[in-house]
Amino acid sequence: MSEKKRKNHQNDESYFLASQWTLMRRKLMKHGLARFSMVLLGLLYCIAIFGNFVAPSDLVAYNAKTKNCPPTKIHWVHEGDFIGPFVYGLESERNMETFQLEYREDTARIYRIRWFVDGPEYKFWGLFPTTKHLFGVEDDGYLFLFGSDSMGRDLFSRVILGSQVSLTIPFVGTVISFVLGVLIGSASGYFGGVVDTVVQRIIEVLSSFPSIPLWMALSAAIPSDIPVVRMYLYITIIISLLSWTKLARIVRGKFISLRNEDFVTAAKLAGVSDLQIMLKHLVPGFMSYLIVNLTLEIPSMIIGETSMSFLGLGIRSPATSWGVLLQEAQDISSIASYPWRLIPLIAVVVTVLAFNFLGDGLRDAADPYK
Amino acid sequence: MIPTVLIISFVVFFIIQLPPGDYVSSYIAKMSAEGEIFTQEMIDEMRAEYGLDRPWYIQYFYWMMDILFHGDFGYSFSYLRPVWDVIMDRLGLTIAVSLITMAFTYLVSLPIGIYSANHQYSVGDYLFTFIGFLGMAAPNFLLAIILMYASYVWTGTPYIGLFSQEMLQNGIHLYNFGEFLKRLIIPVIVIGTSGTCGVIRTVRAQMLDEQSKQYTLTARAKGVSERKITYKYCLRAAINPVVSGLSNSLSSIFTGSTISAIVMNLAIQGPVLYTALKNQDMYLAGTILLVQAVLIVIGTLLSDIALGLLDPRIRFEQQKED
Questions:
Q1: Beta bridge partners of A124
Q2: Does residue A162 carry a pLDDT above 80?
């Protein structure tokens, strides 16, 4: 047997010996767009995890002198000399016709951008206090990569710190709705009869129910003076309470088609309890399918959280999320004068697209018939 | 069907009264801010007059009884008019906008979905896939802002609301009907986009599924024309989930239009519902939600009937059960 042929043969064997998950991973790696999305999402989550370190400023620092400042230009060359990345000083003047602050660069002052500068103090992962930030401007220069908002806060920092909320709510929410969906859906499909009818009615009512009144009612029921963390938890629960129905339906369908299989009867005869049969024998059989559906559910959760916060029903300041940031982009005139306020929208769209592509790739990979 | 509507109305009522306080307390908070002084007696009197001093399920019972036996949907506290009159003002336009949006959704998405499936992995397919995902990814209220801004930059007139100043004064006539249609474009696109993209994805996936099945191969082998295979064989089987999703798309139009209508200042029910919920004007909010629920249930029924007409297998199952 020639070398090449034997290698092929080995490959074949490893193909047939590979577990379902290995096959899925291999197929997923072939899907270019999904791979790219995975890297992108990994990057976004890394930034969110190290948010306080990456963001040059914090959530509470506001400055009346830098209201609605457009994104700062980063220069490399000053009057023919190369000095590395720097920004010029910021000079503002009130236009007496429009009464708005207008910004100019003061080329006499130069502030260099440096790595690991000292900035506002924060607690790294809540463990130890530090003032180091990934990058920043030396002395008292201003660096607004994405411009600043109506209170003179750095939008770049706020987008990053907002991602800590906007990117994790869907994750926690997914876990909750996964548990709910699997438990309720499997009970409904496995037992059938009255349980099934009742659960189906509940799902029908919940899913034909418009979501906005539910959000409004539930978030109005949250007292406004509770700490941020609890608030966050409540919002997550609200969002996941609405989204378990889809998963429950899928699980139910799968159970109905599987519950009369021989191996289930065998397990029953061997005296395995109902819960064991459901969770140990049936659910793993279509786990990959569930994970695909979960991935595709995350984008709608992100949009849900964004819409809630946009309407002022979700996260409230001082905490921030992408939806809260987009509140400033609510009318035409503000976008016309300050177009950089739409930057959080780009973050939302990129994340949601990435999750969609990843879910698409996962779906293709999980399908054994392709 | 009727039980579902009843359950929905019950849940609606429960949820509306869930936030602490009622219309009287939010009214008093507003008036106190303007300097008026209320005694506890006056407050109690107001509550008794509106029937708000009773527990919510009793209120629900009386509300339902009035609806069923007198056709009376209650009284709107903030409009100071019967709820039904407030709703009728906007119901026509709401249904019109929803139906046009739905027509737009299916007229655009079906051909694109079929094209994407027939030309899988072509440039056009990738383009539509990308646009489709983008449409699902962008929250539609922000799409509304961007489109309004774009229309303002390109045409110089901000298309806010469905009526121009002139239409509000003279009413809609033939000569300004074109203007009205023009103003419909952005709302329809905004409200319809996410649904459209969803349907495109479904049709594409279903068509691809059908095309790889044995009967398509047989038909092709026998020399049936591609056109006939697509439209007479595959499409007929592929369209099922689209038809059964009809009621779902109706409910997403109602939800989607609520936020977008607030942003775009449309004279449809969305903004009324939003303020009614905010002010705890419970009979108004409850009735709007009830009307929407009834429309959705009717939509489900229609889509079930359409499904039966379309798919002989479903008719057959029904007959077997009878």
A1: A128
A2: yes
CATH of domain A169-328: 1.10.3720.10
DSSP letter (8 states) at residue B234 = I
What lies within 8 Å, CB to CB, of A11 at 6+ separation is: none
Q: Give the Cα separation of A100 and B148 in Å (integer).
A: 24
CA distances from B310 to B4, B238, B242, B295, B313 (A): 25, 11, 12, 22, 9
What is the token pair recorded at B301?
């029924």
Q: Which residues in chain B have Cβ-Cβ distances shorter than 8 Å to A353? A: 133-134, 137
pLDDT of residue A46: 92
Phi-psi region of B290 (alpha: psi -120 to 50; beta: other; left: phi over 0): alpha
- Numbered ranges of CATH 1.10.3720.10 in chain B: 85-321
- Whole-angstrom distance, CA of residue A87 vs CA of residue B220: 67
pLDDT at A143 over 50: yes
ipTM for the assembly: 0.72
How far apart CA A322 and CA A325 sit, in angstroms, is 5
- Which helix (H) or strand (E) segment holds residue A332: the answer is helix A332-337
Work out the number of other CB atoms within 10 angstroms of the CB of residue A246: 18
Q: pLDDT for A178-229, tens place per residue?
A: 889 888 988 888 888 888 888 888 887 777 666 777 777 777 777 767 777 7
The amino acid occupying position A352 is: V
Mean pLDDT for chain A overall:
80
pLDDT at position B67 over 90: no
Partner residue opposite A307 with nearest CB, options B11, B160, B259: B259
Neighboring chain A residues of B297 at a CB cutoff of 8 Å: 208
- What type of residue sits at position B32? S
Are B124 and B211 within 8 A, CB to CB?
no
Block residue for tokens 């293709």: A364
CB pair distance less than 8 Å for A208 and B138: no
pLDDT (0 to 100) of residue A39: 93
Average confidence (pLDDT) over B85-113: 87
- Number of residues assigned to chain A: 370
Three-state DSSP at B82 gives strand
Within 13 Å of residue B290, how many CA atoms lie on the same side as its CB? 26
Confidence of residue A1 (pLDDT cuts 50, 70, 90): very low
- Average pLDDT of the residues in B38-57: 78
Locate the chain A residue with the closest alpha carbon to B20.
Answer: A221
Residue found under tokens 């339902």: B64
Q: What is the pLDDT of residues A242-295, one digit of tens each?
A: 778 888 888 888 888 887 888 888 988 999 888 888 888 888 777 777 877 788
Banded pLDDT at B222 (limits 50, 70, 90) = very high
Candidate from A207, A217, A330 with C-beta closest to B15: A217
- Cα–Cα dist A124/B171, whole Å: 63
Q: Are strands B75-76 and B81-82 parallel, antiparallel or unpaired?
A: antiparallel
pLDDT at residue number B173: 66
What pLDDT, on the 0 to 100 scale, is given for residue A190? 83
- Is A311 within 8 Å of A156 (Cβ atoms)? no
The crossing angle, in degrees rounded to 10, of helices A193-207 and B2-16 is: 60
* Chain B residue closest in CA terms to A220: B19
CB neighbours (10 Å) of residue A95?
9
Tell which residue, A352, A174, A218, has the closest CA to residue B143. A352
Residues on chain A touching B294 (C-beta within 8 angstroms): none
List chain A domain ranges: 64-151, 169-328
In sequence order, the 6+-apart residues with CB closer than 8 A to the CB of A183 are none
The fold for domain B85-321 equals MetI-like fold (1.10.3720)
